[in-house]
Amino acid sequence: MAGQLTAKPTNGAVNLFVPETVSSGGLDVTAGTQLACTATHAKISDNCPATHVDIRIHENLTLSQTPWAVRCGPNGTLTPVTK
Predict the structure, then answer these.
(1) CA–CA separation, 24 and 75 (whole Å)
(2) Which pTM was predicted?
(3) HEC profile for 45-66?
(4) Alpha-carbon distance 21 to 13, whole Å?
(5) In degrees, to the nearest 5, what angle opens at C-alpha 8 toward C-alphas 76 and 24?
(6) CA-to-CA distance for 79 and 60, rounded, in angstroms?
(7) What mean pLDDT comes out for the span 3-32?
(8) What is the layout of strands, in order, in the sheet containing 78-80?
(9) Mean pLDDT, the chain, as a whole number?
(10) Cα(46)–Cα(49) distance, integer angstroms
(11) Quick check: 47 pLDDT over 90?
(12) pLDDT score at 45
């Protein structure tokens, strides 16, 4: 993966900016899972447990109006956030 990735914690969520396109397979599933689940342990201001933190994955290092929204489960698997 070329480029810098960034995780920015917010209230109950983390915005994860990746230098790849998730939808085209540019980000390996295992790598994406590891990055997202690691990001849930960032310092969240309301101290949510990692399994309750929304992870918003923004592609190509660009803030998206419709990021990939997932959560890391207790077994380290990603599940989509549906609201």
Answers:
(1) 25
(2) 0.83
(3) CCCCCHHHCEEEEEHHHCCCCC
(4) 21
(5) 60
(6) 21
(7) 83
(8) 6-10, 13-17, 54-58, 68-72, 78-80
(9) 84
(10) 9
(11) no
(12) 60
